[in-house]
Amino acid sequence: MIRGSPQRAIHGAVRLAWRPARLPPDQRQDSAVTYVALCVVSAIAIKKRIYDSRERWTVWNL
Questions:
Q1: Could you identify which of 1, 6, 23, 51 might form a hypothetical disulfide with 27, taking C-beta atoms 3.0 to 4.6 angstroms apart as the criterion?
Q2: What pLDDT, on the 0 to 100 scale, is given for residue 50?
Q3: The organism sits in which domain of life (predicted)?
Q4: Average pLDDT per 10 consecutive residues for the chain, totaling 62 residues
Q5: CA distances from 26 to 19, 29, 40, 51 (A)
Q6: For the residues of 9-41, what is the DSSP string, one character each?
Q7: Taking the complete model, does pTM exceed 0.85, yes or no?
Q8: How far separated are the first and last CA of the chain, in Å rounded?
Q9: Cβ(42)–Cβ(34) below 8 Å
Q10: What is the pLDDT of residue 41?
Q11: Cα–Cα distance, 29 to 27 (Å, whole number)
């Protein structure tokens, strides 16, 4: 049986699911910058690969 109000039990479960940030703000920001940098590098690599394949395709069709 749950002691206390049902709302308290619900909020207790929510409180257990919530996790505070484990890293300080500056390290979290560094992680975000690293993630964005990886996304940009990946996008450039994909774009270059698509461009190169199109260029080869036009050379083959000449």
A1: 23
A2: 86
A3: Bacteria
A4: 54 53 72 93 93 70 56
A5: 18, 5, 21, 37
A6: HHHHHHHHH----SS-HHHHHHHHHHHHHHHHH
A7: no
A8: 79
A9: no
A10: 96
A11: 5
